[in-house]
Amino acid sequence: MNACDAAHHQILHDLYVQACGDLLSAYGLTVQIQKHPGSIRAHHAASYVSVLSATGEGIRLSSMFKIDRDLVASLHPLGPDGTSQADLEDWCRELNNQLVGRVKNKLLGYGRIVMVGIPVLLMGTNVNPVGEANSEIREYSVESAQGEITLTLSTLLAHDVELWEEQSSPADDAMMAEGMIALF
Amino acid sequence: MSNQGKTVLIVDDSIAVRQHVSLALRGAGFEIMLAVDGIEGAEMIDVTPGLALVICDINMPNLNGIDMLVRVKSKPENKALQVLMLTTEAQTSLVKRAKELGAVGWIVKPFKSVQLVQAVEHLTRTP
Question: What is the pTM of this model?
């Protein structure tokens, strides 16, 4: 991977980390997201694991979102009490969906459109992603009193893909802000 | 404002989102119906006349929210049916497409319950 390719992968990872911080903050968890240099850690046997991909022209992203049971329960919109196993499984999927959705929205500012898939849930497992040639896999973690989140982003970019943030103009309102309500 | 007797259909594949929206709107007096994807949503609309509003996600399995909107609005009897999109999608071209298809609004997740209730009350206000 040359320096230019590495810079574009870095942009995707920066957007992912920023999106994750914003998402967790929206659900009341303000934390530092830590990057783990080097290889993937194998020790976080999370309660719930969600995997979700997004693809566009020359871009492929895959997000693995591992979270401990007590933490996913504490982030649930209805609160930790009374949530069933099915509720927590669903919420783990939805958090990854909203995370990748935020990355998708941020990529619009770079003139890139990706389509997001449907999140898949794995449970009670100690799974780790294996990268393919030319992909860039990085792992991040969040620690809180209720438990841990481990995030893994895999990025694959075609060689001719370059990411440049577009200058917005009044005629080019590329996206609505998160949390925004528009009534027509 | 009395919201009694007004029924809102929530179409979303996420249990948590359905629960969150239901809780907020039931607290404001609305009656709630639930569907897990666009196919079930369109079927429930077919058999439920008089819905005050449909709240619909975009990214769902089987039939997504935009395709559900196309299907529902292709029927003359649903011309006046109000559909509010609730989604992580924020792409303006998609918002414009939904508006052209007859959606009455767009909310980008995550949402605040108070603001959602205000928007729903505004849309379902009877003259």
Answer: 0.87
